[in-house]
Amino acid sequence: MTLPIADVIGFAASALVFLAFCMRTLLPLRLVAITSNLFFISYGLMAGLMPILVLHLLLLPMNVWRTAQQLQTRRRMRAVLTEEPNLEVLLPFMAREEFADGAVIFSRGEIADKLYVVADGEVVVEDFGKTLPKGSIFGELGFFSANGKRAATVRASGQVKLNWINQDALMQVYRDNPDFALFLTRLMVTRLAQNENVLRKER
């Protein structure tokens, strides 16, 4: 017995719904859901089933929108791995402080209570012989270390202007901005690797 084409489309749409529930990742799930919506719309039109037709006419644009959001998020995540972050998300939470040439910004072993961004001038990470120019972020390792203490002493090189943010505010930004959170994680991993290389050369 040959099934009517409308029934074939209906069974195919149902199979796609089942397949969507088997998906482990969100993007393939959305793509299958969109295909299922299209099949159900065709089925509803051919079989004259208005409730099914209306339901999937409503679900289709929602699934397309969510898919577009997912693709945009993926593009942003890839960009974070290669591009500098947008530090504007920090600005509403930051204060500014100036340091004279040679002034210690923080010392190794101190409790980490601030993350800094160099607004103007340069700072020197004395323990690792590294100079950080304008736009650099530093002081992040202490926030996420087990003991919450500074891993190095940082000193101003010339007159320096710094923007800083405290830990509570940073955690809010970290939670609300996944792009910045990923960048900060990448920065910390890079810094740890660089510091380890310096220590190995000194041994």
Count of helical stretches: 6
* Shape designation: elongated
Largest sheet composition? 6 strands, antiparallel
What structural category characterises the helix and strand content? alpha+beta
Distance between the termini: 82 Å
Which ranges are low-confidence, i.e. pLDDT below 50, for 5 or more consecutive residues? none
String of helices and strands: HHHEEEEEHEHH
Q: How confident is the prediction overall: mean pLDDT?
A: 81
β content, as a range?
A: 15-25%
Number of strands: 6
Helix content: 40-55%
What Rg do the Cα atoms give?
A: 27 Å
Commentary on this structure:
The chain has 203 residues and is α+β, with helices and mostly antiparallel strands. It is 55% helix and 19% strand. The protein has 6 helices and 6 strands. The protein has helices spanning 5-22, 26-47, 50-80, 140-144, 167-176, 178-202; strands spanning 95-99, 104-106, 114-125, 130-132, 137-138, 154-166. Strands 1, 2, 3, 4, 5 and 6 form a 6-stranded antiparallel beta sheet that branches. A hairpin with a 4-residue loop joins strand 3 and strand 4 (130-132). The mean pLDDT is 81.
Keywords:
203 residues, alpha+beta, 6-stranded antiparallel beta sheet, 6 helices, elongated
Helix and strand layout, with pairings?
Elements: H1 5-22, H2 26-47, H3 50-80, E1 95-99, E2 104-106, E3 114-125, E4 130-132, E5 137-138, H4 140-144, E6 154-166, H5 167-176, H6 178-202
Helix pairs in contact: 1-2, 2-3
